[in-house]
Automatic annotation (TrEMBL):
Organism: Alicycliphilus denitrificans (strain DSM 14773 / CIP 107495 / K601)
Every DUF5983 domain range: 18-96
A Pfam family per the record: DUF5983
Highest classification ranks of the organism: Bacteria, Pseudomonadati, Pseudomonadota, Betaproteobacteria, Burkholderiales
Protein name: DUF5983 domain-containing protein
UniProt cross-references to InterPro entries, sorted A to Z: DUF5983 (IPR046025)
Length: 110
């Protein structure tokens, strides 16, 4: 294997962390699902990938996401992977699941 290629790939690598979707408010989760966040995002079936950059390229207008993005930037994290089964991070706010809200969209399996 070409060691120069491997070294270059390592130089280009960006950090990612996985965390629970419950750290986002229901409105922010809905925006993520619709690919309508104020920052670059890539929705998945059960959450989504959000690019925050380090240093941040843009501060999210969604206050819950801005808090997480700020902490992530201090940790050197460029990508956040929100997942319905992701780990809960102590110290971050938690919000009720959209499914438990009376007017939640019940069209999904979650």
């Amino acid at each position: 294997m070409n060691t120069a290629c491997i070294e270059r790939l390592r130089e280009l690598a960006e950090s990612i962390t996985a965390l629970s979707l419950s750290h986002l408010q229901p409105a922010t989760r809905a925006k993520l699902h619709r690919n309508d966040l104020s920052v670059n995002a890539y929705p998945t079936e059960f959450g989504g990938l959000v690019y925050v950059g380090s240093p941040p390229h843009r501060i999210p207008v969604e206050t819950d996401l801005a808090l997480i993005a700020g902490l992530s930037a201090r940790a050197g994290i460029e990508w956040l992977f929100f997942d319905s089964e992701g780990p809960v991070i102590d110290g971050l706010p938690m919000f009720a699941s959209q499914d438990s809200l009376p007017d939640a969209d019940q069209s999904g399996d979650h």
